[in-house]
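Appendix B. One record, verbatim.
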Amino acid sequence: MTTMTVIEAVRSTLDEEMARDDRIFIIGEDVEAGGVFRATDGLHAKYNDRVIDSPLAESSIIGISIGAAHYGLRPVAEIQFADFIHSGFDQLCSEASRWCYRTNGDAYLPMVVRTPWGGGVHGGQHHSQSIEAYYAHMPGIKVVAPAFPADFRSLLKASIADPNPVLFLEHKRIYRLIKQEMEGAPAETQLSRARVTRKGTDLTIFAYGFMLHESLNAAETLSGEGVDCMVVDLLTLNPLDKETVLESAKATGKVLIVHEDTLTGGLGGEISAIIAEEAFEYLDAPIKRLAAPDVPPMPYHHAMEDFFMPNREKIAAAARALAAY
């Protein structure tokens, strides 16, 4: 039995995969020295020219990965902060996402783009953004956002094995906050599956990343008040696991969707639409969303950051009001 943090789960998985397959290489800013969060610490000494420092140019990191994947390698690109990825948006969304479709399935791009995302660490406006909705909107890119170390291991392995581009989101707030005991090799998993993390009968909370943990904490608080919350970890944001989403919504009839991204255009709107279109007759209350306010993210001052971000208290209050319908 081994206890791992999220960052240890990421590092150990990269190590195992690089040892297994010499086509896998890592490219990104400062990855030879371990990266800002030490996700690649020690890997350059072990794998040398397969851990490559790049220029400070995200479009080149992604562009090099596209070319390498096209010629049979399996790149794992690291974008130092999710906020920096936008200069590579055209490469990801206009090129990588369409590669399989434009070749009628004759060519694939097995590449992973890892990046830390989200707030709660006083990173300010340029080191705290939630980017998932931009990329989950794009067919051809899978978007993954785990919350537990074991899921980081299994889903990162599945992402590396996938024949098409995967954006792998690692919430920086949970890198060392969340620990988990694990035994043996990661379980086989599919990128398109969600999981009921907590069973409940009164209402369903959908969340991912750091907000999954805040939702679980809120559910524990509410259990002492007689409100029994189901909590669903979405895990993969594109493609969404519609089957689990609908089954979980139908099971309780009341739905709260929580995400750290701003409300307008966030993933919660898509989940709401799926439930409204395909499970409306099962609902006992309006679908509710709890998200960040529609202001440019993220305030640096701790009081303003706390106001911006959803947390367990806000989630509990929203769920409490929903349960009272």
